Amino acid sequence: LRESYESSQLIDVRTPEEYRGGTSDDASSTAKSTLRTGHIPGAVNIPWDSTVYPNSNFRSMDELREIFGALDSSNPTVTYCVTGERSAHTWFVLRYLLGWDDVKSYYGSWAEWGNMVGMPIARGERPL
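Below the sequence we write its predicted structure tokens.
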């Protein structure tokens, strides 16, 4: 598991508050499901809902390309959230709308990582 995350670009699709390791209502799903808060070291935070308009329609292809523009579409990529549902949405966007070939969704997501006490975590602002 550690080798996979260290050799891939990681996208944390949770809210910025969850990513930072906060405990507000925005982060309540994380706080209730894990022993620790924060994010996987090296992960960038691109919330899943940044890919849709308020009416739930997908953003335009140009907007999607801009949202993920700081990442390399040819690099192995792993998306994660708390339990996999939000990361599956972003996986779909990357794989089927943007055509990225090497994209995976970390099914265990933060519910698994945050409860594995020996795994590293980071807290703080989002780097992207």
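The first strand starts at residue 9 and ends at 12.
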